[in-house]
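ugh ok fine here u go
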Amino acid sequence: MEWFKGARLNYAENILKYRDSKIALIATDAEDNTDYISYKELYDEVHVYVKALKNEGIKIGDNVACYMSNKKEAVIAFLATAAIGAVWTGTLPLLGTKATTVRLEQIQPKLLFTSGDFKFDNVEIKLVDRLPEIISSLPNLQKVIYCPSKSKNKIEDISRIPKCVYISEFLHPAREALRDDPADLKFEQLPFDHPLFISFTSGTTGAPKSLVHSAGMFMANVRDYGLHQNCTRKDTLYNQSPVGWISWGMFVNSLHLGVTLVLYDGDPFQESPTRFWDLVDKYDIASVYIWSSTVEYMDIHGWTPTSKHSLKNLRQMFPIGSPAKPRCFDFLAEKVKPGLFCAPVYGSTEVFGSICGLDSNLPVYRGELQVYSLGMDIRILDEKGNPVIGERGDVVLANPYPALPVSILDDENKEKVNELYLERYPGYWSFGDEGWQNPVTKGFIVFGRSDETMNPKGARFNCGDIYFALEGFPGLMDSVCVSQFNSEMDERVVLFVKMLPGHKFTSQVVDAIKKTIAHHLTHEHVPEIILEAPDIPYNLTGKKLNGLVKKLINKRAIANESVIVNPSSIEFYQTVDLGQF
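structure:
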């Protein structure tokens, strides 16, 4: 479907509509190295970046990538890329070498913006160590632009990174040229469906799919921040997500409303019990997007505001990333600030925004999402495709929607789009999530992925990431990786492995598997349980049946055994004892 045929616009021009002295970005870190960037300064700096990109020959349709921590340079580079009409891709800096390479080699960027070491979730992330291997898989890469840390305690050597220059060196010729001849910034006027932003699915079989988004995602986020959240120019916003998460792109989109964004290079939630609340007071933060798992962590450890925290401007906090448990509601409403509006947001990579949003005029029920997002006809379908209320089913979209991706990269015939989103329920767009609508309150609960994606403690990834990490592992014939849930809807990852004949499954093998996954991905990807299985179930077309195994270990019925090419394989998963958690 084509939207707004004949219309032309530039995303960055709309984001940068304010060009005054109001602060647009506050960029800070664990050592309180802080930059304040006004809307006028942001516009001028985007101009410099545009000139620098053009000096490198970047033009409409070229790919520019980012692999860095939560720095102001990422925001500026993104807006400059969009101003030219080039295509932006951010990869999560928490991903390891192999996971990042698999994503970037699909798009083959011409430029890569990156940064130095940073700490996240109590783990020191050393991007510099990963870059040489990543770059070796990117033959079209012209240059790596390195944004150094502001820390006075870090000495950064980029000599071993091929094609790498410091950001100051990259920008210097453009800055000098504009100083001598301050020409106006030209924003390329483009069709509404022109590619703007590439995100990645989690990956099921093979590499993650590259979703191509247009300016439609901008419309969705103006709705989310401007209407559902009632954000205005007086508000300061904080978002926990780094570059590479869709919520980071949503965060940047809110600049259209003239708000102030706080960018934190690191993880304030792990630095001290009060560090985050200190930031809320220091920068007068009004609205917070926070991972549900972080809220739960703060509740468990008692990381509440103290008597010295006024939180005078804080009016709303929104748990994201995974379903918010009732205890998250209790913590935010009872232990943070009286009268605080706290409601979870449910969104997806595909729609680049919320699916179920917020309404401060309606009551909030513990554990439930409030309303469908404006412009979205969301329904819950049973396995036969019938809409249901009061029963668990699959979450689908029933109407055309301008923020859906315009394509999947290298999917000219739309075969991947049909397979992933349209085939299961003809006439609907399927999100692959399992949900339930309360017949009394009309609120919603999303239980998690109904397919193969896992989301333990908010660390969203897919079984495909695990399979890629274990490719070529000595003695391993096959594997299947799924989620198990307990009665409180806590999630843990279970990996079943099938060994090659003559190879034994030992504790040493388990340790080696864990180390391999942590090396290629992150420590958050390491399964909590690793067990040997006699066989792995497949369907008649050769697809591994992750969803079936997930249902079996969670003691749920399976609808159709006839699709299983090796039906005897399921007996093990029906009876395996995984213990309680």
